[in-house]
Amino acid sequence: MPYPRAIYYVFAVMAVIVVGFWPSYFSVWGSAAWQFHAHGIAASIWVITVAAQSWSAHDKSRLPLHRMTGKASLFLFPFLIAGLCAIIDRTGKGFVAHDDPVRMMFSGSFLIGIAVAIAAYVTVFYRALKFRRSVWIHAGYMLSTPLILFESPFSRILNAYVGPFIVRGPAEFGRILPSILWSMALELVVIGLIWMKYRAKATPFLVAGCFIVAQMITMGLLKDSPILKAALTAIGNAPSPAVWITGFVIGSLTSWSGWQAGKRPSRRITIAAQPV
């Protein structure tokens, strides 16, 4: 089976998530806004699911667990996308309310970054389902999903502990976006190393890498776009359930269409006419 040590890579991402989000989410669980719970719970369960799939794929006795977690991902994915849309909702509501100087400074970048991440998740999960009978392609697409999650918590680690990126107060808020972009650059380095080892077999990681590059470019160049500010205002004034449900519908359609695309083609049985 492909990527025999991938479980350690997923564990590393899980550790980064815990450390990166500990101050702003896990340690203040009871007071966090519902949008953060919608995203945090779904994303955490998703990474655990990918870890379980990776672990179970390398032993025939564990293949039933692999299939079970794979089918469970169909039902989890809509919540993953809905959780990301919940963060978009929180970003829009904060932009309209002017309730956070960081959000006001980077709302445009955050919006476009999350939107591209949603497009990335939809693409790689659809293709993981479509090619689920091709083990290298399927494994690559599924294992690329934790990598897309990596940037957000790792950038927070940089802001907390790494000298040039440490943010102690408003005077250093400008370091937040560079920390995000450098975290994405590290993701690309990981993808490059995987590609150097496995070459064409690792093409799914290159697909994820294209989305990461798109995030870097758009977050850096479009952060002050009037279109993004208009979108943030519209989202901020929209009912929160409508934003969350939109994400859930997108995720549901992805699960359904990907599963259908990966089905075995039906065989037609023709009965030859018997001579009289």
Percentage of residues assigned to helices: over 70%
The helix-and-strand class reads mainly alpha
Low-confidence stretches: none
Mean pLDDT: 94
Number of domains: 1
Compute the CA-based radius of gyration: 21 Å
Q: Which percent band covers the strand fraction?
A: under 5%
Helix run count: 9
Task: Give the distance, in angstroms, between the N- and C-terminal Cα atoms.
Answer: 54 Å
The helix-strand sequence is HHHHHHHHH
Report the principal-axis shape: globular
Number of strands: 0
Largest sheet: none
Please describe what this structure looks like:
This protein has 276 residues and is mainly α. The chain has one domain. Helices cover 75% and strands 0% of the residues. The protein has nine helices and no strands. The longest helix is centred in the N-terminal third of the chain and has 35 residues. 40% of the residues are buried. The model has no long low-confidence stretch (mean pLDDT 94).
Topology:
Elements: H1 6-21, H2 34-56, H3 63-97, H4 101-130, H5 135-161, H6 176-198, H7 203-221, H8 226-237, H9 240-261
List keywords for this structure.
single chain, mainly alpha
Quick overview of this protein structure:
The protein is 75% helix and 0% strand. The chain contains 9 helices and no strands.
